[in-house]
Amino acid sequence: MEIFILPFIYILLLCWFISYNNFFSLPNMSRAFICTLFIIKAFAGIIITFHAERIYSGDDGMFFYEAGRTLYEYALQHPLKYLKLMAGIYDDSNRTEYYSLLNWKGLPSWNDNETMIKISSLIHFMAFSNMLVHSVIFSFLSFCGLTGIYKATIALTKSNGFVLYLMLMLFPSVVFFSSGVLKETLLIAIAGMFMFLLTQFGNSSRMKIITVILYLFLWLIKPHFVLFLTPALIGYVIVKNYFNKKLWLSHAVAVMVVIVYSFIGIFIFNQILHRDVAGTIALVQQSSMKNSIYEKAESYIQPPVIAPNMVSVIKNSPKAFLQTVLTPAFHFDKTGLRWKGAAVENLLVMVFVIVNILAAFSWRNQYARLNFALFLLLYLFYSLVGYTCALEAAILRFKAPLLPFLIAGFYIFMLQYKKYFIRNESSND
């Protein structure tokens, strides 16, 4: 029981923080209700921490916890050198420590594993070697991110959003795969806050600075997410301000922005950074397939095999996208309640995807350009997931960071039918 005492204290402290912080002042919702949803999320994080291998086919949380503890112990012995590593200053004086503590796999500097280890080391200063405290803190961060997505959505639509908040906080894959010590948890945390701050961008210089900082921080968590998010946002801003009259023209311009951005990005990666984009995707795919076959994984799924060139990547992207969207649907014959539940849930995810696509091409939808930007992000991100995941369990986990945005997009479109589905106090129709 001792292991639960400290996490329980942190849950109470964070509930107290929620009760008095203005960020959690939400329309038509009491602080007690919001705290209850956070407690559900915190316990979801504790559950997946205890059952990591069964729930998401890998104990990443324990890996980051242990690596963070090693870095924390190094900080106690060499505080100045620790601060240098935390600041990302790597030179001949600390290169050995960098590779032994943060990057023993020899990956490019400032990678996402590095970021997670650094954050875990900071939490160790207050966790007293209790991993459940790490889980509670990460769960709280993603809770803030989900609240940010909610606040961004109601800021755009001027609706009360109670149904949206419930869907964001209680959708099973979002609850579990945005809780505990996972990169996906941190991604949802920062991406959600970033989207909220974008809606407040023009309010003050402080908001602008924080927004830029969070954008840069996203690069340290999931670089490919930002690579896909950036052209989608740029395209949306351009068409909203300059091509807002004809829907087909605005979509064409948005697609051209993505194409031009992609060409520039591929050129930079291939010619300047000397990192073959297509070759890297193919290599990750092969590694994923070999590991899954070698470990005789029960949830193995064959990804669309690609050659190490961009023509093959582009040609097979529709198959990869559909594989991600459809997984793990129609697998009701699998043993275990978890897989049956995941299959049922994914049927609803498929509905979200279809509705978002319809919304993007509906000329009556006043948010069609926003839905189209989401569709572009969805297509690019889910295609990469479909290429690089050879496990159904991995797809289930890696597709989760976009589910809150899909839910928000679904909600935005359904506002047009609020008198039938959603109680909405006000709208900007």
Pick out its properties:
429 residues, mainly alpha, 2 domains, 0% strand
Strand segment tally: 0
What is the strand content? under 5%
What is the helix tally?
A: 20
Secondary structural class: mainly alpha
Mean pLDDT rating: 89
- From the N-terminal CA to the C-terminal CA, the straight-line distance is 54 Å
The unreliable regions are 422-429
Structural domains: how many:
2
**Pattern of helices and strands:** HHHHHHHHHHHHHHHHHHHH
Helix content: over 70%
Radius of gyration: 22 Å
Shape: globular
| Sheet with most strands | none
What does this structure look like?
This protein has 429 residues and is mostly helical. Helix content is 73%, strand content 0%. The protein contains 20 helices and no strands. It has helices at residues 2-20, 31-50, 52-56, 60-77, 79-86, 95-101, 112-127, 131-157, 162-170, 172-177, 183-199, 205-219, 223-242, 247-272, 277-294, 310-326, 337-360, 368-388, 392-398, 403-414. The N and C termini lie far apart (54 Å). Mean pLDDT is 89; it is low at 422-429.
Summarize the structure.
The chain is mainly α and 429 residues long.
